[in-house]
Structures
1.
Amino acid sequence: MSLITCNDLTKLYGSKTALNKVSFEIQPGAPIALVGPNGAGKTTLFNLLCGFLKPSNGSVRILDQRPGERSLIGNLAALPQDSLLDPSLSISAQLSFFAQLQGLSKAESLKEADRVLDLVDLRDTAKEKPTALSHGMGKRVAIAQTFIGSPKLILLDEPTAGIDPANAKKIRSIVSEQQENTNFLISSHNLDELEKLCDQVLYLENGSLQQSISLKNQTEKNDFITLTMEQTQTANLVNVIKLMNGIKHVEHSQQDTFIIEYCVNEEPNLEIRLFEMFSQNKLQYKSILRGKRLEDTLFS
Ligand SMILES: Nc1ncnc2c1ncn2[C@@H]1O[C@H](COP(=O)(O)OP(=O)(O)OP(=O)(O)O)[C@@H](O)[C@H]1O
């Protein structure tokens, strides 16, 4: 079963092309990231996947169904960017209401509300009204809502936007814990966060799919190192690194940052060789990271 298949998916708003012939297929597995600048078409894509919008052209299948099909109820869940909780109902009442919409009895729905609140570590808030929660806690409740009925696929549109670091971290760990039980497609502007959570990245720009990158292959091969130096010490460093054993390519990606591509079989201990070279040349580094950062992958 494919999770999502889009073929030449196109969406026009009047004369504005929000999505232009987007084609991709994604399979079940680790969370998938959807990245792109403001106005790239991410929310439009989410809305098409949920069946809130109809394509102008092309086709989309989600869990092998047409978006909006009844059979997707309980199998597909989405957290819209601006999701709101009902301020007049307790957290438990609104979660159990959504569980009843999926066909659960009143008693079952209350248990389901407790279960999903446990998953986001907010069982204590069951009797509270949303106004008693912080913005970050409210977002976690909204994420709990997507877990109702244990769907096969959950779409999260900017789940950590505007959230304080502690709650954002909590949300990342919730996604990480739940990825064994469900599949996630996550849109975010936080590339570091996506890099930690996702194996595959879809990059949209101006309504077109520009790149589909597998991060897993990169880290499994371990054939990149991202090196950040003290800014004053970068002159001629590219040439020095290029002379080292096993180096395939060195890119001076930003003022103080170098992306080093190397052959692991030829030089399995490149970090140690780099430390030796820094010591010989009296150079100071800020950080050495295994892998190529998503930011550099997308924008190099
Ligand atoms: N209802 C609409 N009517 C007209 N144009 C729209 C409508 N919704 C979105 N657009 C336009 O379509 C393009 C894609 O918008 P969309 O909201 O999908 O982008 P996005 O990637 O989600 O942006 P952001 O990161 O800012 O949320 C933008 O140029 C936007 O102005």
2.
Amino acid sequence: MTTTILAVRHLLRLALRSDPARLARAAAMIAAGFLSTPLIALCLKSLTTAAIQHQLGAAVRLALATAALLVFELMMNHFAHLSYFELGDLCEVELQNDLISLTHGAGSLEQLDTPGYADTLALVREELPRTRASLEAVLQTGGLALQMGLTTVLLGALNPWLLLLPLVGAVPVLAGNRAQRLVDRAREEAAPRIRLGRHLLETATTQASVKEIRLSGAEAVLIDRHRSDWAATSRALGRAQGRAALLRAAGQFAFAAAYGGAIYLVVQQALHGGAGLGDVILVIALAAQVSLQVATALGLLTILQDAGHTMRRIRTLRTLAATGTGPASTGTDPGPSDLPVVLTQGIRLEHVSFSYPDSDRRILDDVTLDIPAGTALAVVGENGAGKSTLLKLLCGLYRPTSGRILVDGADLAAATPADWQRRVSTLFQDFARLELRLRDNTGIGDLDRIDDDRALHQALEAAEAGPVLDRVSGGLDGLLGRGYGDGAELSGGQWQKLGLARTLLRRSPLLVALDEPASALDATAEHALFERFADLVADARTETGAVTVLVSHRFSTVRMADLIVVLERGRVSEAGTHAQLAAADGLYAELYRLQAKVYA
Ligand SMILES: Nc1ncnc2c1ncn2[C@@H]1O[C@H](COP(=O)(O)OP(=O)(O)OP(=O)(O)O)[C@@H](O)[C@H]1O
């Protein structure tokens, strides 16, 4: 029941915040519509009595009143629907915005990697489109409560024993409640498998993976896997639904017995002269209404419980996000002022180790590294060595499991991640392909300059993305991608150049983090890009003492760095300049020679 109350409270608060006038109008119309139903039964009783007593004029007036009430009831429901339709959409948008804030509210990304968090997030995302139906259920529950109250008063006035009827009506409600819990539990247990099913469907049908799947002939495997996962899921859900249906049927059977008893009671009363035929008609009509009310209450309860679970999940996400945003366990107060505006000493990693959530595997293992201000650092190593992870830690997207990252001596853990991230300019391997306007795509790198056409053009040019601009009809305001509109289709390298333009748009960063920034570029574009970058790094260096960290497998680029670090299974195995590492004849020298031989 607390889940239901939670849903009612949360949704009403949302609706009140979104449009109080519309909420009041919808509630008044629903209440009027619901209250007219028992009044129709009352009119029928009087109509029957007038007809028996041959009062033709009164009977006609009552028949007209009954018809008018019926029309009024339908009209009220119809007009109320118009009011809460839009209100429901407004509430859904509010909840969607809440969800976006919660996803980004977590200071680090650890929460998003936790399966429990990911499941909750996926469930909430799926459930949000039901917001309108949930709000409708809240309003209808209010109307129904009024209707049940009036019905109870009318029944009690006829015979106090009839007051038991709405009470027995609670039996199927409680049984329905329990049945719903059974189904909910099964659904939550099946959530990871449902997610997997969706992922398989997405993998098998999205443009990016279709090519590979077709060429490898893997569709049969995918279909098999998809089929067996769904079969297991629907078996478990089916079992729970079966048990729930039995429980619901038992509750409804109890009410059916009480309904028969109520009619028998009033018929007996009429036979002994204690009630008229009109009263019998009234009880038949009201008892039927009680039955309908109970069935409606059951349906509404199910919707409200579902909505309550959604609200509870949102609350869980909020709690987790709140625990994620705080500074790490240093106990000190986060102080934006602790972070420098200009780097003078540099960034230091001190015995940094890291494991992803719910895993004991150390991806970084006791890494200690000094990156002096103004340094261009290249990180190399084999696949899975931990290079991207190191970059994510430097960007404050994750916090070290142990050890510290110091920026000019200030512990990153003591600052709010957002504060540090404002001073970081990044481009990751899995860069975002934002199917929005070209302006948004680039401007998101520095939102203050999203409308500054000159700055956007400069960033696009610096990233060698000028030709992209020519391909997009509408220029900066033209749409990219075909996801939901007829936008310009770009190649992988062109998308990557836009990512670079975003990186370059950010002003005065203290850290420029680049994870394979040229992986999708051709050799000429890569060369031009790094020449451009060398200039920019030099500018940033003199301006803010910024550190540039580059992860790359291309040694022709890596060798230009001031400092090169080799990562091996999460540990720093070598560090130095190209000349020093080449002379040391270790892993770096071996990898460099191998690549040079291939290009030769
Ligand atoms: N979100 C995550 N959750 C759990 N494990 C992860 C996650 N991201 C990466 N890993 C694991 O961490 C290890 C290091 O990954 P990382 O991406 O840092 O390697 P990398 O050196 O950048 O590799 P590559 O050269 O292939 O890009 C890998 O074994 C990977 O499976």
